[in-house]
Amino acid sequence: MKSAWRLTLALVIALTLAACQSAQKTEPAPETTPEPPKTDVDTSGAPDPRDYSDARNFDNPESLLSKRVIYFDFDKSTVRPEFRGIVSAHAAYAAANGSARVTLEGHADERGTREYNLGLGERRGNSVSGLMSAQGTRGSQLTVVSYGEERPTCRVSDDECWSMNRRVEIVYTAR
Amino acid sequence: MTVINNVKKLFLILIALLAFPAAEAQLQIEIISGNASALPIAIVPFEWQVVAETPENRVDEVVSGDLYRSGLFDPMDVDDMAERPVDAEGIRFGTWRLLKVDYIVVGKVRTPRDGAGYEIIYQLFDVHTQEELLSRITTVGPGDLRFGSHRVADAIYEALTGVPGAFSTRIAYITATGLGNDQRYELIVADADGYGPQSIVGSPEPLLSPAWSPDGRSLAYVSFEQGNSAIYQQDVSTGARELISSGKGINGAPSFSPDGKNMAMTLSRSGNPEIYVRDRATGRLQQITQHWSIDTEPVWSPDGRYVYFTSDRGGRPQIYRVSPNGGTPERVTLEGDYNARASVSPDGRRIAVAQGRGNEYRIAVWDIETERFTVLTPGKLDESPSFAPNGSMILYATREGSRGVLSAVSADGNVRQRLILSEGDVREPAWSPVIR
Questions:
Q1: Closest approach of B331 to chain A, Cα-based (Å)
Q2: Residue B32: per-residue pLDDT
Q3: A134 is in which domain, residue-wise?
Q4: Which of A22, A121, B151, B344 could form a disulfide with A106 if both were Cys (CB 3.0 to 4.6 A apart)?
């Protein structure tokens, strides 16, 4: 129940972020006629969302490549099944694009001690790194950095906020 | 009656703290829970004999504040003093017995013969036996009157409790202010009473894990200023600093050995956090743990025989110890789901930890011999315990609402006090060794 809700929340946020990114590329609508934002400006050249070697899918909300945050259970570092697809998509992209460089930033929630949480953040980063390596990404393309509990995305002491902070962010330093 | 007195005293202390020039964010200290059996003592205002100078602080006020915060003393209000003697001859013990005071301190401050700094001359008497318990001259340099006052409090504390005072020490802590891209981290050093905070280093990237060298002259800490964790060591007075470790993975949790020759730290260069000991003279590294679990937060026993550390090799984080030369670690904490970040008492017999139970984290002390925990704080997110160098109190970080504050609890759990920074998050206090 709780994890289903969390997943929904994660998806909503991912979609919102993706929507914001794609909204930047659309033409501004005329002031007098507010219309729903157009996401299909260039239909002819739209990439196949499941082509994970195509960099255009980073900004395509229908593609898993547009999702770059993996969330974890408390004191755990295993990638939950619902996030495996996202990891696989990025592994496929990096495998297909040898010049791509990825930093996996591992984070923990505020519970527990700071240095132990540095260890936990690294363990989460390593867990994603291991999955990507197993799917063809070269070790030289991957760097794991743990921030422990030092870089929270929210600062409220409750389950909802903690679940948002237990994460690995997939950051491309080169595409 | 006592409650009213305490409230009045608290109010006076707050006024005194507020009266200090507040150029920097000043730590305020308040007692959360007091001790009913505190010893009544009168610190009579010291006579100021330094010509051509007004005192930067009143010695008696600093001494009274220190003793009050220890929780063991109940210093008398100056306003309630019917007489104000400045030397032994002036004390009429009958008067002080009527005022229900057990001990009295009288003194004066004058310029030393060589003309620089201050000489604090004082005596401590038992009001009932009229016995002189202490008679001393404390000499300090120019600008060190507060430090001298803390030394006086140290001596009085030792004379009456048998334990050396820790008032003339300092504390280091991390502050974090701002949000998102405006976040700013500072490593601060202040007097043990929170006075005179000074930023040692500042960064837009996280700073954590400050640790004192045994001579109290430098601090090791972790900084993310280069994008990954790195260990630095910095001289507190000159600011000169040295990069100690910035390898791949985690560079964290520095801890000086008691003789100052080695530094224990956590490195994950092998792909997994392990404890290493670095010889400070040669730079040689020795790995002393080897396990796929998280091994971190090393601290030395005062005799240097053990390195205590946190490990989840048994499933959940617990405290273990190992020889600084490596070998088979031995589990130390045997109860609870989550025990981490040990601070060893100066006598080596107890370790304070952050103890987790569900979503609650409290400071608990494990007695190594009797193998029992005593929980000292109410939670909810208490962490980073640090023993005072005399073992009397434990500083720790806690949260109130969405911000962090520092608190201190007496080692028996009876007295708690809160050190509040006026702005932002305060975390990871580290109590300095006694500075000679």
A1: 17
A2: 64
A3: 2-24+58-174
A4: A121
Cβ-Cβ contacts under 8 Å, B208 against chain A: 114-115, 148, 150
Is 70 exceeded by the pLDDT of residue A28?
A: no
pTM of the model: 0.85
Q: Which residues contact A133 (CB under 8 A, 6 or more apart)?
A: A91, A139, A142
Instruction: Give B42: exposed, middle or buried? Use CB within 10 Å, 0-12, 13-18, 19+.
Output: buried
Within a domain: residue A48? no
Query: Is the preceding omega at residue B380 within 30 degrees of 0, hence cis?
Result: yes
pLDDT of residue B51: 79
Domain ranges (residues) in chain B:
35-161, 170-431
Tally Cβ neighbours within 10 Å of residue B292.
10
Cβ <8 Å between B253 and A126: no
The predicted structure's pLDDT at residue B10: 44
Q: In this structure, what CATH number is given to the domain that contains residue A73?
A: 3.30.1330.60
Question: Is residue B147 predicted with pLDDT exceeding 80?
Answer: yes
Q: Which amino acid is at B356?
A: G
Give the one of A75, A119, A155 whose C-beta lies nearest to B250's C-beta: A119
Task: Count CA atoms within 13 Å of residue B91 on its CB side.
Answer: 26
Number of domains in chain A: 1
State how far the Cα of A155 lies from the Cα of A175, in Å rounded to an integer: 32
- Whether the predicted interface score ipTM is above 0.85: yes
Query: Does any domain span residue A29?
Result: no
The residue that leads in pLDDT, A41 or B42, is B42
Instruction: Name the CATH topology of B170-431.
Output: Neuraminidase (2.120.10)
| Chain B closest-CA separation from residue A114 CA (Å) | 8
- Cβ-based contacts of B316 with chain A (< 8 Å): 75
What pLDDT sits at residue B64?
95
The whole-number pLDDT of residue B71 equals: 81
State the pLDDT at residue B419: 79
Per-residue confidence (pLDDT) for residue B418, from 0 to 100:
83
The reply to whether residue A115 touches residue B266, judged by beta carbons under 8 angstroms, is yes
Question: Model confidence over B162-194: pLDDT tens digits?
Answer: 999 999 999 999 999 887 778 899 999 999 888
Identify the architecture of domain B35-161 in CATH: 3-Layer(aba) Sandwich (3.40)
Tell me the C-alpha to C-alpha distance, in Å, between residue B152 and each of B38, B87, B189: 19, 16, 21
